[in-house]
Amino acid sequence: MSDERLVHLVDDDEAIRRSAGFMLKTSGFRVQTYESGDQLLKAVPSLDPGCVLLDIRMPGMDGLEVQQALKERGVGLPVIIMTGHGDVTLAVQAMKAGAVDFIEKPFEKAVLLGAIGQAFSKLDRASETRERTKEAEVQLNGLTPREREVLDGLAEGLPNKTIAYDLGISPRTVEIHRANLMTKLGVKSLSEALRIAFAAQDKTTA
After folding, report:
1. What does the alpha-carbon distance between residue 194 and residue 182 come to, in Å, rounded to a whole number?
2. How far is the C-alpha of 163 from the C-alpha of 181, rounded, in Å?
C-alpha cells in the first residue's frame, strides 16, 4: 500500500486502538488514532484524505452522531462502523446514513482489511469522478456560449428543430454549431459529446 492510504481510527477503547492499529500498520497502512469522536471532529480542518474506522458506542458523541457531524461539515471520507454484538440495528442506521460497511468486534484481520479495501475503492472512485468533472469543465470552457446552448439542448434529448426554435436560429445553424462543438471537444459521436456534458454536471462528489 502507498503512504497515502491513511486510516483514521476512532475508538475509546485503548486495546482496540492498539490491536486494530497494529493489524493495519503491518498491512502497510498509516494509522491516526483518536480516543473520541470529539477529538476527530477537532482535527477536521487539517484532516488528511483517508477512511474513517469509527466505533459506534463511545462516551460523549456516539458513532452515528460523529458520522452525521462529519457529513454536516462536508467531510466526504468513507466511514466503516465498528460494532459490538447486538448493535446491528445501529449499524444498519449507519449504513443508511452512508457508511461503507460495518464490522463486528472482535474482528478477523481479513474482515477488517476487506472493509478497508472497500472504503478506499469508494474514495478512489470519488477522486476519479472529480478528475473527470474538472477535465470536462475545461473542455466545455472552450465552446462559445451558443455552442454550449446547443449542447445543453442535445443533453436534454431535444431534436435540432426544437433547439433551433428555442434559440431563435435555423436548424441548419444548429447543425453547424453541433459540428463545431464536436470538433472542439475532439469527439466523433454525439454520445461522446454527451458524456462530457454529463460529466461536467456531475457535482455530487466534487
Report:
1. 10
2. 15
Residue 33 to residue 17: CA distance in whole angstroms: 7
CA nearest neighbour of 203 among 155, 141, 132, 145: 132
Q: State residue 82 phi and psi, 5-degree precision.
A: -105, 130
* Total tally of structural domains belonging to the chain: 2
The C-alpha atoms of residue 116 and residue 7 are separated, in whole angstroms, by 8
Lowest mean pLDDT among 96-100, 108-112, 128-132, 172-176: 128-132
Mean pLDDT of 161-177: 95
pTM comes to 0.66
Omega within 30 of 0 (cis) for the link into 106: yes
Give the pLDDT score at 1. 40
The rounded distance, in Å, linking the Cα atoms of 78 and 74 is 12
Give residue 185's pLDDT.
93
Domain co-membership, 169 together with 79:
no
82 contacts 106 by C-beta, under 8 angstroms: no
Same domain, 73 and 96: yes
26: domain CATH number?
Answer: 3.40.50.2300
